What we know:
By secondary structure, the chain is α/β, with parallel strands linked by helices. Helix content is 34%, strand content 9%.
Amino acid sequence: xxxxxxxxxxxxxxxxxxxxxxxxxxxxxxxxxxxxxxxxxxxxxxxxxxxxxxxxxxxxxxxxxxxxxxxxxxxxxxxxxxxxxxxxxxxxxxxxxxxxxxxxxxxxxxxxxxxxxxxxxxxxxxxxxxxxxxxxxxxxxxxxxxxxxxxxxxxxxxxxxxxxxxxxxxxxxxxxxxxxxxxxxxxxxxxxxxxxxxxxxxxxxxxxxxxxxxx
Length: 215
């Protein structure tokens, strides 16, 4: 799926940068080592140190390099296997270390006013379940605004990204190679038609007052 996305984007004339977290042996664990300087050396408040080190230019090099990729991109693509109702741990750790307070979000700079407003994002992921297991009234409930709300709204939407409806490959481990090849063909078409994919609904800040209370 990763290679299909990249090859399709390149064929469409786009420039692509890749973060293969496993190949990079990306460290997913937050720690004080993420910061080359400290706003408060006596007590680690991670979000405050993120802001301080972003402004001071003293973030750990692996974090700074990933932020540069995000800031240079018009579209962010995430591909992963769905595991235990969420993203793999290494991707969750990337989110926690890279999507930092300051340039990505902070205070009232969320959703439509978030730091990545104007950029788009999509996810293409596979899972073992069948499509009928997900949705209103199904055993696992809704996917985009239920099981994976923490990712689509609480992460991507929260920092201002316009989030496209995902590409989902169902029941992947249990189907034939022919079926999997068809999934990749369908993914190619999805990427080619990104401009026509529906956008997931996110909270509209215009519906809330300065204290985030409904108007």
